[in-house]
């Protein structure tokens, strides 16, 4: 009887899935390169604090040795002096600039990292300027990738920057006092106006969204202007300036430098810029390259090499004044 019951017992059919379906190979969620990259990032995050502690000890040792030998301990302004400088020069006459970071959803991960890197560069330029201006980072989404990238930098919340989360420049400032800087504008920025806030688009897109900043600004009813590059210099290539190049140019002009010398001191030498030659009539010497994407990529590559070749300028944070830009970015 027991044998007959076993023979009559019905076995339920097996549930098919991607893991047991005949002829199907389970897919891997990530590639080997992605997994390797994640492991490296995790290892770097664990060792970051240890490396910074070692660097601080090395800096302290160098200061002690310099003091014993009677050498100057510091080559640049102190942290206290920089803060005092910003407090004194932060009046109504100071330059006011807002970096528009409302393009979070239009950039890939590597471009977001470049965008934040340029923001760090802008912060350093402003903080070490002889006349620091008011710097605003607007349009940062609290749950966005740009915010996540900022959070990788220790002490970033305490930087001398006005952060505006989930609020764009039109929500923070009076629109009548905003001037959005775009190369498509018909208006030329001849002189910086006191009381105006100049908006720079924080978009790294390799010209995939050409004219987007200008169209958004005009739709919002904002005044626009372009930098007077072709009015003051001749270049052998198209003027594709990064966000921090535009900011650096504004700070130099706000400090009293003329446009021609400020442009020549700011833009990369590889562009072959020369002061405008006038023979009764100005010649427009701005040439365009055939591939705009390659031009901007070359500029970014040149900027990175230039930064590596420069004397390491520390980006101040709460934990250490001597941490470099690459260490802050964790790259």
From TrEMBL:
Keywords: Methyltransferase, S-adenosyl-L-methionine, Transferase. InterPro entries: MT_TRM10-typ (IPR028564), MT_TRM10-typ_sf (IPR038459), TRM10/TRM10A (IPR016653), tRNA_m1G_MeTrfase_euk (IPR007356). The keyword DNA repair does not apply. Its EC number is 2.1.1.221. It catalyses: guanosine(9) in tRNA + S-adenosyl-L-methionine = N(1)-methylguanosine(9) in tRNA + S-adenosyl-L-homocysteine + H(+). Residues 1-87, 276-331 are annotated as: Disordered. Residues 17-33, 317-331 have a biased composition (Polar residues). Residues 290-302 have a biased composition (Acidic residues). Residues 40-58, 78-87, 303-313 have a biased composition (Basic and acidic residues). Residues 83-274 form the SAM-dependent MTase TRM10-type domain. It is an enzyme of class 2 (transferase). This is tRNA (guanine(9)-N(1))-methyltransferase.
């Amino acid at each position: 009887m027991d044998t007959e019951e076993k023979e009559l017992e019905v076995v339920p059919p097996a549930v098919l899935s991607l893991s047991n379906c005949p002829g199907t190979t389970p897919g891997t969620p990530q590639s080997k390169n992605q997994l390797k990259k994640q492991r490296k990032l995790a290892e770097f995050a664990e060792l970051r604090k240890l490396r910074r502690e070692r660097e601080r000890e090395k800096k302290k040792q160098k200061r002690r040795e310099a003091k014993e030998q009677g050498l100057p301990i510091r080559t640049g302004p102190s942290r206290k002096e920089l803060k005092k400088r910003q407090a004194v020069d932060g009046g109504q006459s100071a330059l006011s600039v807002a970096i528009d970071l409302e393009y979070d959803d239009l950039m890939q991960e590597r471009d977001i990292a470049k965008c934040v890197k340029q923001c760090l560069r802008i912060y350093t330029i402003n903080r070490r300027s002889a006349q620091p201006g008011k710097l605003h980072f607007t349009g940062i989404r609290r749950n966005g990738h740009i915010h996540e990238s900022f959070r990788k930098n220790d002490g970033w919340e305490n930087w001398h920057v006005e952060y505006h989360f989930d609020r764009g420049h039109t929500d923070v400032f009076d629109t009548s006092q905003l001037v959005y800087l775009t190369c498509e504008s018909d208006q030329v920025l001849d002189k910086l106006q006191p009381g105006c806030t100049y908006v720079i688009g924080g978009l790294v897109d390799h010209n995939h969204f050409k004219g987007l900043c200008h169209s958004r600004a005009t739709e919002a009813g904002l005044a626009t202007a372009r930098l007077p590059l072709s009015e003051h210099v001749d270049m052998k290539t198209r003027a594709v300036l990064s966000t921090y190049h535009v900011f650096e140019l504004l700070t130099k002009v706000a400090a009293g430098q003329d446009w021609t010398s400020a442009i020549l001191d700011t833009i990369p030498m590889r562009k072959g810029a020369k002061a405008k030659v006038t023979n009764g009539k100005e010649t427009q010497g701005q040439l365009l390259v055939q591939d705009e994407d390659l031009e901007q990529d070359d500029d970014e590559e040149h900027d990175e090499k230039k930064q590596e070749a420069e004397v390491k300028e520390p980006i101040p944070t709460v934990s250490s004044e001597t941490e470099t830009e690459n260490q802050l970015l964790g790259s």
